[in-house]
């Protein structure tokens, strides 16, 4: 039963909506297992649920939604499962574009895209090109993404600048590292949500999450909807984000 009633109310006053939100879409396998279905059915249900999350985030006024779809570690799964996932991404992101267009959502991909199958690389490129002028929200899909890989990549780019004599090692700053990540214009997420109960980052947005609030839900990703998102935003409204300083009330 819906905790907050069946109507979606995006103007509630007890929530705080992050401008930039990260979601680790975890729990597809457990969702399928509970229903005695193959894991691939869980991945399909998870992909379908991404549409609902986009509608909900747009409704609430999130500007940047970064979702973790496939990690650099997920290649270690059985080949069958990896192949099914790659085929699902190809099918899903091509078909999904019409709906994204209707919602005025720009789609971007973050990760080691060159390491993906050629057909999927083309789907990613097409999706980005078609949606480049959409303004309401950005959906960032982290695919073949690893936080460490992203930092490694940034360091390599900066090292090349040093080698070419454009900068000295002493010129390297935190900002320079941020500017060399995959999508430097996307703000760091204020909040990261992980469905399915695991209390870990699993290599998601390691640099960007330095001061993100973290919220874990027991709900499995394919079941994650308005009620859970609203609970997360209510909880986030009560967080005291001190950034190493003092609470607002304690500042003199
Ligand atoms: C997340 O669901 C999807 C990917 C990692 C690609 P899982 O497949 O990890 O689901 P669980 O954790 O086994 O339930
Ligand atoms: C994290 O989930 C990656 C994605 C959701 C894409 P995993 O299921 O791969 O993470 P672990 O193995 O539980 O850390
Ligand atoms: Mg998992």
Radius of gyration: 19 Å
Largest sheet: 6 strands, parallel
Name of the CATH architecture of one domain? 3-Layer(aba) Sandwich
Strand content: 5-15%
Report the structural category: alpha/beta
Give the distance, in angstroms, between the N- and C-terminal Cα atoms.
47 Å
Tally of extended strands?
6
Uncertain spans, ≥5 residues at pLDDT below 50? Answer: none
CATH homologous superfamily caption of one domain: Decaprenyl diphosphate synthase-like
CATH fold assignment of one domain:
Undecaprenyl pyrophosphate synthetase
- Helix residue percentage: 40-55%
Number of helices: 7
Describe the overall structure:
The chain has 252 residues and is an alpha/beta fold. The chain has a domain at 19-145 and 189-235: Decaprenyl diphosphate synthase-like (Undecaprenyl pyrophosphate synthetase), CATH 3.40.1180.10. It is built from 7 helices and 6 strands. It has helices spanning 28-34, 39-60, 79-102, 118-131, 147-163, 174-179, 226-237; strands spanning 20-24, 64-71, 105-110, 137-145, 191-194, 213-216. Strands 3-4-2-1-5-6 form a 6-stranded parallel sheet, sandwiched between helices. Strand 3, helix 4 and strand 4 (137-145) form a beta-alpha-beta unit. Helix 1 (28-34) crosses helix 2, helix 2 (39-60) runs parallel beside helix 3 (79-102) and helix 3 packs parallel to helix 4 (118-131). The longest helix has 24 residues, at 79-102. It is globular, with a radius of gyration of 19 Å. The N and C termini lie far apart (47 Å). The model has no long low-confidence stretch (mean pLDDT 96). Bound molecules: 3-methylbut-3-enyl trihydrogen diphosphate (IPE) (2 copies) and magnesium ion (MG). The site of one 3-methylbut-3-enyl trihydrogen diphosphate has 11 residues, from strand 2.
């Amino acid at each position: 039963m819906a905790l907050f009633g069946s109507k979606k109310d995006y103007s509630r006053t007890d929530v705080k909506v992050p401008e930039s939100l990260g979601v680790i879409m975890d729990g597809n396998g457990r969702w399928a297992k509970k229903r005695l279905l193959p894991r691939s059915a869980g991945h399909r249900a998870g992909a379908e649920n991404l549409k609902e999350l986009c509608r909900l985030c747009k409704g609430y006024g999130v500007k940047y939604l970064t979702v973790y779809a496939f990690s650099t570690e997920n290649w270690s799964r059985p080949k069958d499962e990896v192949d099914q996932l790659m085929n699902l991404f190809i099918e899903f992101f091509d078909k999904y574009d019409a709906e994204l267009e209707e919602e005025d959502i720009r789609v971007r991909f973050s990760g080691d895209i060159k390491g993906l199958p050629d057909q999927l690389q083309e789907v990613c490129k097409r999706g980005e090109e078609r949606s480049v002028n959409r303004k309401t929200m950005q959906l960032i899909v982290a695919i073949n993404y690893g936080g460490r890989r992203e930092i490694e990549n940034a360091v390599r780019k900066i090292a090349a600048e040093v080698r070419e004599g454009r900068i000295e090692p002493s010129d390297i700053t935190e900002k320079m590292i941020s500017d060399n990540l995959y999508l430097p214009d996307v703000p760091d997420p204020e909040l990261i949500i992980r469905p399915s109960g695991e209390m870990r980052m699993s290599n998601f947005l390691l640099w960007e999450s330095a001061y993100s609030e973290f919220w874990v839900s027991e709900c499995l990703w394919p079941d994650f909807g308005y009620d859970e998102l609203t609970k997360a935003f209510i909880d986030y409204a009560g967080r005291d984000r001190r950034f190493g300083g003092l609470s607002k009330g304690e500042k003199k």
